[in-house]
Specification:
globular; eight-stranded parallel β-barrel; alpha/beta; TIM Barrel; single chain
Length: 297
């Protein structure tokens, strides 16, 4: 089991997702910004290795406007050595990596432009991992999308786009996550049956909307969709409900007791856990101690 957090390290004085306004785009500005983002990413990786946090969701914003038509610069070649070095560090320290494109990535949208832009974004983010020379256990995580009044047809549309439009390099990394409103674990299982993509399990989303599966059974279902040689072990997102907030809102800081209870309930199941908790590495460090105490690492 590896434990981690998404994108931002609040203990460091840098960000790996610096950007600028589209109106200010220039190749010089792009190069300068990407260089700073990659330098910060290296610092985040080093912090995580030092503290035993070996699962990281990299930010989607490493390369500003990477999938936008305005960006015609060959940043892949310009930063090839830097990406390779980052990848070597990740592999040397046995880290697990994921990326999670923004909500505008919707493969089953009825709007062809949305689908086109979604694929372009997935190609960009997958290329980051390819440039780092990471294997296909490094994953791209998306949601099922919308239901558009007919979830069955929407699921079929997702599968059609997957099979007819996605490059193989994206297919090899793609995962689907159960969400907190529309796509339950069983809906994602249907997507898996149609495409073969593994399911990233989200415990809080499952608590919000489900088909009655107990938590351990739900984790087992999701884990069964991962091919160890191709995908690695199950990736999952962990959080808890923020008190007195809308359903599905992530808690500010981890409840060590609730996390302990989750690990106890899933004893014997191997997984890498991404903590979607607002205070980032602070909660991740607490979770690490809970896992150590239960001999889960």
């Amino acid at each position: 089991m590896k434990i981690g957090y998404p994108c931002i390290n609040q203990s460091l004085d840098c960000t790996s997702s610096r950007t600028f306004r589209l109106a200010s785009y220039s190749e010089e500005r792009l190069i300068e910004t990407v260089a700073m983002n990659l330098a910060c990413l290296q610092r985040i990786l080093e912090y995580n290795v030092k503290h035993g946090l070996l699962f990281l969701r990299m930010t989607s914003g490493l390369v500003p406007f990477a999938s936008h038509e305005i960006n015609q610069y060959n940043w892949q070649e310009h930063f090839k050595a830097e990406f390779q070095q980052l990848g070597k560090y990740i592999k040397a320290n046995h880290m697990r990596i994921s990326m999670h494109p923004d909500q505008f990535v919707v493969l089953n949208s009825p709007n062809p432009n949305t689908v086109k832009n979604s694929i372009a974004e997935l190609v960009y983010q997958g290329s980051i991992m390819d440039l780092m020379e990471l294997d296909t256990t490094a994953k791209l995580q998306i949601h099922g999308g919308g239901a558009y009044g007919d979830k069955g047809s929407a699921i079929d549309r997702f599968a059609e786009v997957y099979h007819t439009m996605l490059p193989d390099a994206v297919k090899a990394r793609l995962c689907v996550e159960n969400d907190d409103r529309t796509y339950t674990l069983l809906d994602c299982l249907r997507l898996h049956e149609l495409t073969g993509i593994p399911i990233i399990f989200d415990n809080l989303h499952h608590e919000c909307v489900n088909n009655g599966e107990p938590m351990r059974e739900a984790v087992e279902i999701a884990a069964s969709t991962w091919e160890p040689d191709r995908d690695g072990i199950l990736m999952m997102d962990y959080s808890a409900q923020a008190p007195a907030e809308r359903k599905g809102k992530h808690v500010q800081s981890i409840s060590e007791q609730l996390f302990h209870d989750f690990l106890a309930e899933t004893e014997g199941l191997d997984m890498d856990i991404m903590l979607e908790i607002k205070d980032k590495e602070a909660s991740a460090l607490k979770a690490l101690e809970v896992a150590k105490a239960l001999d889960r690492l």
